[in-house]
Amino acid sequence: MNVKSVTLVIAIALSAIAPVAAQIGARPARPVVIPPQGAVRQILFKNCTSCHGIDDYAFNALDRAGWDSYLTKKHEAVSVSIAGPDRELLLDWLASKFGPTTKPFPRTYLVQEVTTFFTDDEAQAVVKRACTSCHEIEKVNGARFSADRWRVIAVDMRERGAKIEDEELERLVEWLGRTKGTNPQQ
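The structure corresponding to this sequence follows.
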């Protein structure tokens, strides 16, 4: 093999490994924000989503004045200005959805590699302990989400008070994704 062939083989191998490595321990969890309906949805899609996702809003918990200042500051360097009734509707939605009484999604949670897996009994015990203090277990048992969506939910619920330790969270996410994934229940 010549140097060019070896370089090509190494480049192909690294490109195949990189996505796997990126998934293990290096990717922060992202919140998932369900877009609103009606006029606010149109405002968001017209003014916001061409540059960033709306999930970025979930990292904040601000009052209306705080959101007004945040939007102004974030858009100083770009030529985006939402004014008049559109801005008023957007600020109302942001303050109601991500106001000072809400808990912002944590910026620091990083996905950890799962090396040991929950049995069904272990996972059910964690679900029962962590989830049923706030809602019925059927809310979990009836849901079907990808592992990434389960991670967002688990991190969010932990921020809201669910009793789940760091070392349990990713094991639970793996189990939920595997047993309560996106396929409908049979």
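Helices lie at 3-23, 39-47, 64-74, 84-97, 120-131, 138-141, 147-159, 166-179.
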